[in-house]
């Protein structure tokens, strides 16, 4: 089992630092030109698609163009670095959780601190992973899977896209909390993981619901549980893993996408952006578009995103330390 450090002590201080404007960029008559939103992934990726969904209505609300700047590399870290290199009050970022929660433990000399150098604007969307097995696998639910794994320590395998990936860390968190030992087999792509599950070469894997769903509908795969705290709308019939077979009731492992700014951005700008993004995410059409690609619209105040960064950094940091995921 992973011993989780109390999150209360340093969360409030960290959030206060994250929301402090070190060198304010005045919001008077802002925006005065196009907004540039840096995305650390290529065009067509989920973060890029989500950023573009937000960009069009945001441009309309602000009366200025919103330009998406794709700067792929290092799991999204380069996009954050490029955003932080700007200080014009018109440069922002859309990023997944990795560059803000696990990257500092995985990448040496990353060049920024997610708490002190980033000003959270808004959580945009979340997506869980599902525990997937082939239709021939004996277990039909998570409890049976855990029981089988306890009877055969280290014999049940799972695939991921590599050491330190979201699927790898999620599987290790699941195994630790369930009190089981699983055998990790890394692959180059999720397609290889899926093919290997379907072909019986590996037993299981954590993957996006949208990746597993077509194979479930074809009768070739089963989803034993979902890692979100509540049932996920895209797969509403798949039970949450939390509370099953000894797993804690607060078990949660989600990927998320967020809108961020450089620390020092005028709080009035942060507030304006948060207000507009909240309104955009409240639109039913946007919610449906996000769900169609496997994401649930979220939103929320900047301090909620700051809290999420602190909590997930602690959570995944403990898993990384336990598994030595940063060693490779």
UniProtKB/TrEMBL annotation:
Which InterPro entries does UniProt cross-reference here?
A: BUG, Bug_dom1
Question: Which keywords annotate this record?
Answer: Signal
**Signal peptide, first to last residue:** 1-27
Q: Which Pfam families match?
A: TctC (PF03401)
* Domain of life of the native organism: Bacteria
Similarity annotation: Belongs to the UPF0065 (bug) family.
From the Swiss-Prot or TrEMBL record, give the protein name: Tripartite tricarboxylate transporter substrate binding protein
Species lineage: Bacteria, Pseudomonadati, Pseudomonadota, Alphaproteobacteria, Rhodobacterales
């Amino acid at each position: 089992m992973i011993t989780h450090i109390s999150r209360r002590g340093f969360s409030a201080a960290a959030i206060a630092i994250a929301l402090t404007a070190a060198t304010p960029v005045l919001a008077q008559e802002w925006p005065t030109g196009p907004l540039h939103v840096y995305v650390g992934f290529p065009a067509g990726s989920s973060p890029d698609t989500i950023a573009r969904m937000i960009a069009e209505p945001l441009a309309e609300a602000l009366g200025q163009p919103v330009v998406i700047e794709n700067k792929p590399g290092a799991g999204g870290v380069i996009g954050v670095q490029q955003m932080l290199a700007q200080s014009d009050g018109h440069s922002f970022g859309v990023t997944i959780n990795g560059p803000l929660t696990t990257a500092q433990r995985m990448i040496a000399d990353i060049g920024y601190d997610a708490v002190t150098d980033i000003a959270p604007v808004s959580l945009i969307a979340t997506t869980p992973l599902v525990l997937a097995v082939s239709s021939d696998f004996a277990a039909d639910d998570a409890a049976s899977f855990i029981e089988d794994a306890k009877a055969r320590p280290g014999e049940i395998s799972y695939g991921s896209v590599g050491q330190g990936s979201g699927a790898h860390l999620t599987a290790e968190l699941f195994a630790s909390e369930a009190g089981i030992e699983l055998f990790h087999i890394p692959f180059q792509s999720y397609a290889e993981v899926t093919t290997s599950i379907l072909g019986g070469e590996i037993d299981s894997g954590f993957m996006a619901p949208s990746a597993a769903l077509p194979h479930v509908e074809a009768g070739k795969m089963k989803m034993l549980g979902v890692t979100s705290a509540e049932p996920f709308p895209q797969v509403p019939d798949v039970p949450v893993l939390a509370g099953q077979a000894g797993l804690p009731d607060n078990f949660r492992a989600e990927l998320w996408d967020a809108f961020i700014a450089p620390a020092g951005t005028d709080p009035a700008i942060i507030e304006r952006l948060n207000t507009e993004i909240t309104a955009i995410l409240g639109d039913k059409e946007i919610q449906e578009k996000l769900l169609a690609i496997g994401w649930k619209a979220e939103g929320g105040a900047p301090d909620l995103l700051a809290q999420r960064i602190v909590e997930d950094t602690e959570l995944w940091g403990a898993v990384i330390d336990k598994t030595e995921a940063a060693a490779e």
